TrEMBL record:
InterPro entries linked to this entry: Bact_HTH_transcr_reg, Chorismate_lyase_/UTRA_dom_sf, Tscrpt_reg_HTH_GntR, UTRA, WH-like_DNA-bd_sf, WH_DNA-bd_sf
Alphabetically ordered keywords of this record: DNA-binding, Transcription, Transcription regulation
Name the record gives this protein: HTH gntR-type domain-containing protein
HTH gntR-type domain location: 8-76
Amino acid sequence: MVDKQSPLPMYYQIEEDIKLRIKQDEFSSGDSIPSERELSEMYGVSRMTVRQAVLNLVSSGLLYREKGRGTFVAEHKIEQPLLGMTSFTEDMKARGMEPSSKLLSFTTAPSSSDIARKLSLNESDEVYIVQRIRYADAKPMAIEKTYIPIKLFPELNEAILQGSFYSFVEGVKKQTIGRATQGIEAANATEDEAELLHISVPSAVLLIERLSYLQNGVPFEVVQSIYRADRYKFISNISRQ
Ligand code: 16G
């Protein structure tokens, strides 16, 4: 399988072969891959060469190591296009996954100056502060903290937020959601976040802040989300010109 005459380094050829086996489901997510010794016999190369290939696949996130247990195939990341303004519920359903939420807290408070500015409110105006864990097929994907002006949706309650907030805005309130500005940055999960997301410490997460507007230009939510970086990959199509 490894072409020793090829100008491509042997570790690279092994990496590509392991990637292909994962793609063809010969190695499925959660499965352990053969040991270094087995791989070196399989490819007829030294253990050092195999180690290099495996290390590269671990650093690119395709494989992960568990101390004392071995090396496993990581779950495929959810590829989230940075394009349409979709909701978590829609995103998961579109992938054939079952969305669900756990409401961690639902409170009201006068808006802080930062949130008031973003939502074009006075500081005395109250906002709902909602914290939810979002699950796909019962696995935690993200933690969301949402600020919503009370005056826009006075009847909002906990039951509504167990389901889809966007369905409530559009289906029940008959408001059209227009657009949003969104920023993404990297961070390390805190211990509390890691526990809620079922990830170890240290783990990288993606922080996303979205400020969304109704079609009429009125801002209706500020959402600060913490996404599992091992499960999400944001993709965009770009073109020159
Ligand atoms: C997404 C949005 C969030 C929105 C939520 C509504 C991002 C980064 N955030 O999670 O702003 O509030 O969907 O989801 O995409 P829902 O309709 O399922 O409650």
